[in-house]
Amino acid sequence: ATKGSPTCLAKILGIYQVTSKHLKGGKESKMDVLVMENLLFGRNLTRLYDLKGSSRSRYNPDSSGSNKVLLDQNLIEAMPTSPIFVGNKAKRLLERAVWNDTSFLASIDVMDYSLLVGIDEEKHELVLGIIDFMRQYTWDKHLETWVKASGFLWW
């Protein structure tokens, strides 16, 4: 992406490696930690969607209560009665940002990510961000995708 291009990628604030030593035995373990911006901070969201662009196994039957993360099929089901209105200028900006981001992610072989969409009815705003984009599309991910798509497990 060029300078000044719109983006929806959630900002990475830091990547750290945490080392801990167990008291018994002194065994050391390391964990890599990725810290990203909290897109939901200070928001009063009435609906929150984790969208992947697929309807297969993408439905949360328990949509009641606060802090429920809904999925693609929930959004499709809600649109006739609770549509999300976006102005033309905002829509064009969003389309351009998603195009930039998905083109960039594809160019570095990242194929698994989500578009987080929150609806803040109090402020009349959409909260959007592409999240979970740090895992590369490896052979194990390819196998997992194939198994989900084929609908059966073999081994």
Automatic annotation (TrEMBL):
Residues 1-155 form the PIPK domain. PROSITE patterns: PIPK. GO terms for biological process: phosphatidylinositol phosphate biosynthetic process. It comes from the Eukaryota. InterPro entries: PInositol-4-P-4/5-kinase_C_sf, PInositol-4-P-4/5-kinase_core. The keyword Nucleotide-binding applies. Pfam families: PIP5K. GO terms for molecular function: 1-phosphatidylinositol-3-phosphate 5-kinase activity; ATP binding. Keywords: ATP-binding, Kinase, Nucleotide-binding, Transferase. SMART domains: PIPKc. One of its GO terms (cellular component) is endosome membrane. PANTHER family: 1-PHOSPHATIDYLINOSITOL 3-PHOSPHATE 5-KINASE-RELATED (PTHR45748). This is PIPK domain-containing protein. It comes from Actinidia chinensis (Kiwi).
